[in-house]
Please model this.
Amino acid sequence: MPNQLLERSLELTFPEGLVGYPEWSRFILEELPDGGPVAMLQSQDVEEISFLVTVPRLVCPSYAFDTPASVRQLLGLSAGQDPAALCMLVVRQDPLVITANLLGPLLYNPATGLAYQLVLSSSTYSAQHPVVPRGPGSRGD
Model:
């Protein structure tokens, strides 16, 4: 899985939608203006829906999982080709806490824009993996 986000905006289609929201299937993945490690996943189905996303290995360098053959087929990946992966971020303001959902990675084929949200049901990863934990010296103390 690549560690870089993207070099441009990319249309992503989730044929099965997102977990719990099968009607949310069309998104635009856009780099934020600052060019940093976070991008915006903007719904094309529901204007008010958007998510901050990043590459999972940027928040958990050892992050790894096996992509099921059925998902590889859905994404149109060739033998030996890995999907690109993103994780959703949640930002809480008071106190400032940022977490990453490592249990539900968003996988996609950069060549086709086909995407799928995988649920790692038998994983030890967290849906609230701390990215900016609250602690001494952090904002909000």
Summary: The chain is about 10% helix and 30% strand. The beta strands are 10-13, 26-31, 38-43, 50-54, 84-92, 97-100, 106-108, 115-117, 129-132. The first strand starts at residue 10 and ends at 13. The chain has one domain: 10-131.
